[in-house]
């Protein structure tokens, strides 16, 4: 949230309701966001976001152009859009073919939605991981609308004491994202549930 520049009163759109996206929603509120909108296509993840993070939700499969819908929903675009999806998002047929031919490094759909959903002069925080090759990157639109892109891996070590204090002071509770606690021998089952998006799986903890 600090890298994304979320400020009190901001409207924040968060793409993806997997563990990172769900935690990003919590921290958006903690940084004073006035409105937080979560985007995903898995119903149980959207319901989880509504229940535990009290956010508005959008199922991108219910809209022909999710980016434009979000722009309209936020009256001109969000101040900050945080892409927690990355290259593991749903691929278009062309992206699927391109990835198979090593011409494309996975999906770009999350970033394209972010580009459309952010306001002029707004910020796109790329938290999801992307590869090195992408076709049809919307560079011109980003330049024309003065969009600020921020990305990079989190410097986790300096944040550890800060996060520890937030936990011990009860200002943040991440435990709801843990949906499965399994013995190590059941690791294949846990990985399968997460990969196939079954059993309402969000995060699996394995106990030796």
TrEMBL record:
InterPro entries in the record, alphabetically?
ADH-like_C (IPR013149), NAD(P)-bd_dom_sf (IPR036291)
Q: Does the keyword Transport apply?
A: no
Q: What SUPFAM superfamilies does UniProt report for this protein, alphabetically?
A: NAD(P)-binding Rossmann-fold domains
> Organism's domain of life?
Bacteria
The prosthetic group or cofactor this protein requires is: Zn(2+)
Keyword tags: Metal-binding, Zinc
Ranges for the Alcohol dehydrogenase-like C-terminal domain?
A: 19-87
What GO molecular function terms would the record report? metal ion binding
Q: Which residues does UniProt assign to the signal peptide?
A: none
Q: Does the keyword Zinc apply?
A: yes
Q: Which one Pfam family would you cite for this protein?
A: ADH_zinc_N
Full protein name: Alcohol dehydrogenase-like C-terminal domain-containing protein
